[in-house]
Amino acid sequence: MTKPAFTATEQKTLETFTALMWSLSRPGQLQTLPAVAADYPANFLAIGETLLDLETTFYTPDPILRQALARTTARAETPDRAAYQFYPKVAEAELEALAQAPVGTMLYPDQAATLILAAWFHDGPQFTLTGPGLPRAQTLQVGGLPEQFWSLRKQKLRYPLGWDLFLIDGNRVTGVPRTTHLEIR
Questions:
Q1: Shortest CA distance to 89 belongs to which of 113, 117, 121?
Q2: What is the rounded CA–CA span in Å between residue 110 and residue 112?
Q3: What percentage of the chain reaches a pLDDT higher than 90?
Q4: What is the DSSP letter of 37?
Q5: Residue 19 has pLDDT above 70, yes or no
Q6: CB of 156 within 8 A of CB of 132?
Q7: Which of 26, 53, 97, 174 has the fewest other C-beta atoms within 10 Å?
Q8: Sheet of strand 164-169: strand arrangement
Q9: 81, 16, 77: which is closest to 51 by C-alpha?
Q10: What is the pLDDT of residues 137-161, one digit of tens each?
Q11: Could you give the CA distance from residue 174 to residue 142 in angstroms, rounded to a whole number?
Q12: 56 contacts 74 by C-beta, under 8 angstroms
């Protein structure tokens, strides 16, 4: 029995999903998004096309990305209600919206937001990551995010409450689940 071939779009979505899955399964390890998703807004849009559908909500402060993500049939929402939040730039101005992102409830921790954030991995503070999915401590260097963001994450994190993060640098992505403990080195 032969299987139908994937279309180019289906192949891109499958590769994006696989990179995202492995990035949360192996926190701090860099995964590669499909080559077509190497720049903004293509990298964020590829993730949006993979994660968003008619039953999901999203927020982004970026008007160009908002318009593109709306084509996924997901509903645009405010930062305090959106399940997926896309920040192609994170500066102090975005911290107010990020602070509103849902962290879930004790009854429904799965209602926490997933944050997709632009960052870079070539300089910035070094973190030691520990927790599930990490057989030993993992080191990750992350730049491009204000120092206050990491304080905000620590303040909001009360397991099982908190955010799952995808950090994006070009076509590279790494995941930081809410179960991962970060310590600045």
A1: 117
A2: 5
A3: 85
A4: G
A5: yes
A6: no
A7: 53
A8: 31-32, 172-176, 164-169, 114-118, 84-87, 57-59, 75-76
A9: 16
A10: 999 999 999 999 999 999 999 989 9
A11: 10
A12: yes
Question: Does the bond joining 4 to the residue before it have cis omega, within 30 degrees of 0?
Answer: no
Q: What is the 3-state secondary structure (H, E, C) of 65-132?
A: HHHHHHCCCCEECCCCCCCEEEECCCCHHHHHHHHHCCECCCCCHHHECEEEEECECCCCCEEEEECC
**Which residue carries 């180019």 as its tokens?**
8
Per the structure block, which two tokens stand in for 109? 């921790």
Which tokens is 153 given? 């994450």
3-state secondary structure at position 42? helix
3-state DSSP helix/strand/coil % of the chain, to nearest 5: 35, 25, 40
